[in-house]
Amino acid sequence: MRFHPVLHVYKLHDGTDFGAACGTPIKAPYAGTVSAAYFNAGYGNRLMLDHGVVDGRRVVSGFNHATSYRVGVGDRVAKGEVIGYVGTTGYSTGCHLHLMVWLNGQMVNPMSWY
């Protein structure tokens, strides 16, 4: 739980934030297929990558608050490919990437997977 800097309430922080200058390229951590790309009030510009089964586990990652994305739903991306650019869209107080990871449908700390 943390005190949310925009909503001013205590709320679960469900990902890991990586501070970076707006416009910094966001690269795909693994190959995958873009399963969703949309705007959400909280997450801003959001992109979901389905990596399929990796080491016996279904892996999906989410990239939030981007200025823009270079890929769209259905696109296949390679590991290391630029998929978008860091931004500050949605409930955000500065440029950063809010990264989320799900293993077999359960949200996990991204640092435990990468």
Automatic annotation (TrEMBL):
SUPFAM superfamilies, per the entry: Duplicated hybrid motif
Domain M23ase beta-sheet core: 12-110
Pfam families tied to this protein: Peptidase_M23
Domain of life of the organism encoding this protein: Bacteria
GO molecular-function term, one example from the UniProt record: metalloendopeptidase activity
Protein name: M23 family metallopeptidase
Organism, as annotated: Microlunatus elymi
